[in-house]
Amino acid sequence: QPTDRTTGNLPKAELHLHIEGTLEPDLAFTLAARNGVRLPYADTEELRRAYLFEDLQSFLDLYYGLMAVLHTEQDFEDLADAYLARAAAQGVRHAEIFFDPQAHTARGIPIATVVEGLSRALERSEERHGISTRLIMCFLRDQSAESALATLEAARPHLHRITAVGLDSAEVGHPPAKFREVYEAAAALGLRRVAHAGEEGPPAYITEALDVLGVERIDHGLTCMQDPGLVDRLVRERIPLTLCPLSNVRLRAVDVLEDHPLPQMMAAGLLCTVNSDDPAYFGGYVGDTYHAVHEALGLDEEQLRALARNSFTAAFLDDDEERRRR
Ligand code: ADE
Ligand code: ZN
Fold first, then answer.
1. Which residues bind substrate (predicted)?
2. Which residues lie at CB < 5 A from ion ligand 2?
3. Which of 122, 179, 260, 311 could lock 273 by a disulfide, CB 3.0 to 4.6 Å apart?
């Protein structure tokens, strides 16, 4: 029986983590009190009872709603620092962190507040938690292409803090090609590119994210298994997939963890990583996720080590600062 060190605590990178999805009920109520925000839940117990999701959209409704407590730079710093402390305790050595600027600017919170607050925590992360970090700015795909372009424009003064752009939120009906222009602009600014694709959407969205948006990694990519030709391509081109098994169960993409195709995906030669997505909502941080796939899917120590190795292979760990100045 592998010890916790070989399951939960294995040194690893986390590549699919929405910082807003690390907002634990306790911190949500603390920030609500600090900012005079009334939440539609009596207490943390009642809030936790609302975490029964039917699909991605039912989760997103609650996720965006709870962000109402995030107001100041201090709030964003506290949020990120709490995540980094938890991640460190589960073996995370490098974290590439998504944030959703439009979910905050739509509430009147300037992008500067978000980026500067998060950056205060990220700057101290190496020294406090032993975790190196990157920041990935996501566009909300259920908002317009114009809104994404305006978000990239608003982020211009902060690009020295941002490594890559991503694409998240409600997938079905919002194919990647809608964001061709903003991804081209991001690439021209020296930003790297990733996108959620194939979480609930069809395999064609994965192909489109690669061919039209030029992404280097696919976030989720679960539905590639419906298209053997696409699997061959992902293997051949060594495109990393940032899988999130606990998220897939909670958002009902798979019925139970025992049914998750991770073992078949690894056996097919896909460059798989496992990640926590929105750990405050989906029942565990990334170490818990490694432990869960060990228990439910029978992945052995060697397979868990392969996942951890893949997480560093797939990370943006080369010198993106130099790329930015070029
Ligand atoms: N935003 C936060 N979590 C997400 C997920 N799992 N899919 C799409 N958008 C998200
Ligand atoms: Zn995600």
1. 278
2. 277
3. 311
- 250 touches 282 (CB < 8 A): yes
Here the tokens at position 62 are 């609650």
Report CA 188 to chain centroid distance, whole Å. Answer: 23
Instruction: With cut-offs at 50, 70 and 90, classify the pLDDT of residue 136.
Output: very high
CB 64 within 8 A of CB 168: no
pTM for this entry: 0.96
Ligand 1 atom with least separation from CA of 278: 3
CB 240 within 8 A of CB 218: yes
Q: What is the pLDDT of residues 182-191, one digit of tens each?
A: 999 999 999 9
Asked whether the beta carbons of 30 and 289 are under 8 A apart, the reply is no
Is the ipTM higher than 0.90? The answer is yes
Indicate if ligand 1 lies below 6 Å from the C-beta of 199: yes
pLDDT band at 7 (very low <50, low <70, confident <90, very high): confident
CATH no. of 12-316: 3.20.20.140
pLDDT band at 69 (very low <50, low <70, confident <90, very high): very high
> Cα 98 from chain centroid?
5
Catalytic residue list? 199
One-letter amino acid for residue 42 of the chain = A
